[in-house]
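// run 5 | inverse folding | seed 20
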């Protein structure tokens, strides 16, 4: 006997698992001398090594009695069984034997079952019944299983709702959240009680890994990269009309997710810095992905059965603004919770409020940041916009949120209309430009074209930092283009370097504002990120980060612009522009800083 793990037949990559297991086992046979033994001994040992679930398949394999006694024939039969594409027999065997594993969350179990049943080729009439039956019989919670067995004619969605409510209840009991429900306390329309109220509903808390897998499943995307992904053109026929989409409340889209840093050491390594703090750039990636998930939660198409048809939508990030950071420095050993909901809806766009909290060991939460994402709904092949459900307020608190969101939409339009590419700087701004110019001049340099750098000042062009990178398929989104969260992470981490070099120490990030996505970025492109310090005031540093892309056919062109505000613990020099373009950047940085200061 070896210490080899049994074959995992419940994985969606069963063919690859089998290939790896067979290769390892072949080596084991040679090294142990088992390859020289009788067929009977080899078959017996093989079936004991492959694991109970896979060994049971042996009895169902189509072989003669003679073939069952020949080791080579047995291996060949398993080979055919596991590697044949579209094998309903295998799929149904795996599906019927799939039970919830010890320590496996209900949400993870459900997600796997929903993936397995699609390969079973059940008839449309039997599909939902088979899904409900397998979920009920497979769960490890026996009291809940007995309860569901006594509830007749449950649809799969009703079964899943019951499981989600049980999982949320269990998570509350474990202290995963800080919800404190007082049965006799009357709820009022305040933010705290509003959040408590909707969290006590049927909102399951999944990990970010589970959410990503669920979205891939809903969209019908392959988990592995291919240069030419399968067509989604057939989904265009299922795109609903605006009038077919019923209004939704903010409550409907509210959801939460966990980044389990306290339990997963491998995951923790991808979030940790050299000083054992958290990489905020990674959190930006998660927030962008989570905002897409909130879009999924908001969208409801009554006439579409998502068990039979993949979601005929894609979602893209249009812009991100008003990311505000608290003074809380999260521990890398504590879980991070993301929460959010839709706060405003246009014809095809949605504003999403997302906030991050660190989960302390006692279960209490501390807010890290809050942000606003504006997302766009697109059709299945991302060629034009697609309609989304309108938004209605269900209580006084939601009405206030909606009113604030409408004011933000007006402010965004005002900002676009007052853009310095469209209008002249204000009189106050023109005076600032002139004052900065005079700081760099004397009676002689004004005619010679030179500049004088005053003490405790730095030229803006001296703060320029350029980073060249290349995108890889692991950074892709649902459209096989570069994931917006990856661009946000790269820009943020470059801004931290730039701000630290300017201040001489690591400053604290306060705001991120006006992240604009001008156009999509292909995974075959070269990325160039350029960072400048554009404005300083007291100990505050305002930075602008520009992302450009280049392909084999095109030169570099701007795809994204990011603005960051940092605060230093030490005095910093004043930034000064030389050229008119830098003077405009200085005004843009000042506008971003003052706007963040107001909010």
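// decoded
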């Amino acid at each position: 006997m070896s210490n080899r793990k049994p074959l995992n037949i419940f994985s969606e990559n069963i063919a690859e698992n089998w290939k790896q297991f067979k290769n390892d086992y072949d080596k084991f046979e040679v090294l142990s001398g088992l390859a020289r033994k009788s067929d009977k001994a080899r078959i017996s040992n093989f079936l004991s090594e492959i694991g109970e679930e896979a060994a049971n398949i042996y009895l169902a394999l189509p072989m003669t009695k003679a073939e069952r006694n020949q080791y080579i024939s047995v291996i060949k039969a398993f080979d055919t069984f596991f590697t044949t594409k579209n094998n309903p027999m295998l799929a149904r065997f795996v599906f019927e034997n799939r039970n919830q594993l010890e320590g496996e969350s209900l949400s993870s179990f459900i997600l796997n079952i929903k993936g397995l049943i699609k390969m079973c080729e059940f008839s449309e009439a039997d599909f939902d019944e088979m899904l409900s039956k397998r979920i009920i019989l497979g769960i490890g919670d026996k009291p809940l299983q007995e309860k569901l067995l006594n509830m007749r004619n449950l649809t799969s969605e009703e079964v899943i709702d019951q499981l989600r409510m049980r999982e949320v209840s269990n998570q509350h009991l474990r202290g995963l959240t800080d919800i404190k429900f007082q049965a006799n306390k009357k709820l009022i329309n305040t933010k705290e009680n509003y959040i408590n109220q909707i969290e006590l509903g049927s909102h399951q808390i999944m990990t970010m890994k589970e959410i990503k897998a669920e979205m891939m499943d809903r969209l019908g995307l392959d988990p592995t990269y291919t240069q030419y992904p399968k067509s989604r053109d057939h989904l265009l026929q299922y795109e609903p009309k605006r009038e077919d989409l019923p209004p939704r409340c903010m409550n409907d889209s509210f959801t939460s997710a966990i980044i389990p840093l306290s339990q997963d050491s491998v995951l923790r390594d991808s979030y940790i810095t050299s000083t054992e703090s958290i990489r905020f750039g990674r959190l930006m990636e998660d927030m962008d992905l989570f905002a897409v998930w909130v879009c999924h939660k908001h969208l409801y198409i009554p006439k579409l059965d998502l068990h039979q048809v993949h979601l005929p939508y894609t979602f893209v990030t249009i812009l991100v603004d008003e990311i505000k950071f608290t003074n809380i420095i999260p521990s890398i050993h504590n879980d991070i919770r993301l929460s959010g909901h839709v706060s405003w809806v246009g014809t095809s766009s949605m504003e999403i409020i997302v906030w991050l909290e660190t989960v302390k060991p006692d279960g209490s939460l501390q807010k890290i940041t809050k942000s606003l994402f504006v997302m766009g709904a697109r059709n299945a092949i991302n060629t034009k916009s697609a309609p989304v459900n309108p938004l209605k307020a269900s209580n006084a608190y939601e009405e206030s949120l909606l009113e604030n969101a409408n004011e933000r939409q007006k402010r965004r339009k005002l900002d676009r209309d007052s853009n310095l590419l469209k209008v002249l700087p204000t009189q106050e701004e023109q005076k600032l430009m002139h004052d900065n110019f005079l700081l760099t001049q004397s009676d002689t340099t004004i005619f010679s074209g030179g500049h004088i750098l005053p003490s405790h000042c730095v030229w803006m062009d001296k703060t320029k930092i350029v980073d060249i990178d290349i995108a890889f398929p692991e950074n892709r989104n649902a459209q096989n283009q570069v994931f917006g969260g990856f661009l946000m992470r790269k820009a943020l981490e470059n801004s931290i370097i730039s701000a630290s070099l300017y201040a001489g120490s690591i400053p604290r990030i306060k705001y991120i504002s006006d992240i604009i996505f001008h156009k999509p970025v292909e995974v075959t492109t070269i990325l160039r990120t350029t960072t400048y310090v554009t404005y300083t005031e007291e100990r505050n540093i305002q930075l602008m980060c520009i992302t450009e892309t280049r392909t084999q056919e095109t030169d570099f062109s701007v795809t994204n612009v990011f603005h960051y505000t940092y605060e230093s613990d030490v005095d910093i020099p004043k930034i000064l522009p030389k050229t008119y373009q830098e003077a405009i950047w200085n005004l843009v940085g000042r506008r971003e800083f003052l706007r963040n200061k107001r909010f």
